[in-house]
Amino acid sequence: MFIAAATITIFIIFCFLDIITSPKYPSGPTRVPLLGNFLEIQKLKNKLGFYHLVWDKLAKCYGQVYSVKFGPIETVVVSGYDAVREVLSKDDFDGQADGFFFRTRAFYKKLGIVFVDGPMWTEQRKFCMRHLQKLGFCGDVMEKIVIEEVNDLVLDITRKYEESVEEHKCSENDQEDFISAFLMDIEKNKKSLGSFSEEQLVVILLDLFLAGSETTSITLSSVILHLLMNQDIQTKVRAELDAVIGDREILPSDRKRLNYLEAVFMEVQRHSNVVPLAIATNRTIRKTTLQDYIIPKDTLVLASIWSVHMDEQHWGDPEVFRPERFLDSKGKIINDSWLMPFGVGKRRCLGEKLAKTYIFMFIAKLIQHFEIRIPTDIQLPDKPQNGVNISQTPVSVFFIPRRCLKAN
């Protein structure tokens, strides 16, 4: 009898401690013992369809900094420009989430560059930046490859090929490639406890490929969809291309002269919110403060980029697709700090410059040579597909040639 009573008492105390929080810790929805807010979050997700809308709804109730709990995992959700920028820029929030889910993709170890932190992240980022720049990352070599690939894609549409465009061939140069450079560093660091290994190489290549390829392809799809939905904007982009470029080959250096096209790209990034939350979940590496709150060590922090891009007070009409918001009265680009699709701070996307160059080249070349139209029997999707990234629902379109492309 005594043991049963003691067990019940301990369980009640455990449940009580499981749901209470410190007065200086962000408040949030009422928690259920053991489960936390899991059931409520899932109910809202089923109703609203997207997690970023769940976080936005809760922010309207509990403020721009609030807490939720998933089972035993304490999580702080951050919305709004000031709080999001503080989380993404402050070293105290520079840790990354860890656990079974994050390690299943990495040989059950903490590997790669996206979901690692500390000295390992610093060492790997330095290596990536050094060797990607050495290999022409966003330099002449990479620009040549981008031009060749964009030309191949446009020619592919013109000739109506059914197969995929053949991958580009390695350009002739005497530079070592990224993999060779990494393998050389493995040999150099064999006797040390450095972060270089063949498993790390595999995972870092996976990180670089997934972080770049998926978001870039989704952004390209979003640009095309917005041009379909806004034929007047497509006409303006084409007129700018005709006036500035004419019939000649488009070059990456032309981007600074095509301000309206650049504004369209910026507005697509803001309006489509391909990555609604910061790509990697932050974790506090020490006890710290956030605005007026005290955040314990090892607390997960979700930063809502979507909340910044859709802030009504700043943008005025965030639901409206309006590229002119990024142009001043003279037609020059306005670099608004509230636009942060590639993140902020030290963890800003490694491939930002390359992604911008590739998307610019592809869209500019496409509009230069084609008019994009909707088949009469096709209805455009009214909502995107849900996932880690917000992707567009596939739709059939017409690419009507404006000029005949000459094969090389």
Overview of this structure, please?
Belongs to the cytochrome P450 family. Keywords: Heme, Iron, Metal-binding, Monooxygenase, Oxidoreductase. It comes from Acyrthosiphon pisum. With 408 residues, the chain is an alpha+beta fold. The chain is built from 14 helices and 9 strands. The strands form 3 sheets. It has a 5-stranded mixed sheet with strand order 1-2-7-4-3, with helices on both faces. Strands 5-6 form a two-stranded antiparallel ribbon. A two-stranded antiparallel sheet has the order 8-9. Helix 7 runs parallel beside helix 14 (352-369), helix 9 crosses helix 11 and helix 9 packs parallel to helix 14. The radius of gyration is 24 Å and the shape is globular. The relative contact order is 0.14.
Please render the helix and strand layout as text.
Blueprint: H1 2-19, H2 38-48, H3 51-62, E1 65-70, E2 73-78, H4 81-89, E3 95-96, H5 100-103, H6 118-134, H7 140-159, H8 178-188, H9 198-229, H10 231-244, H11 259-272, E4 282-283, E5 288-290, E6 293-295, E7 300-303, H12 305-309, H13 312-315, H14 352-369, E8 370-373, E9 398-401
Parallel strand pairs: 2-7
Antiparallel strand pairs: 1-2, 3-4, 4-7, 5-6, 8-9
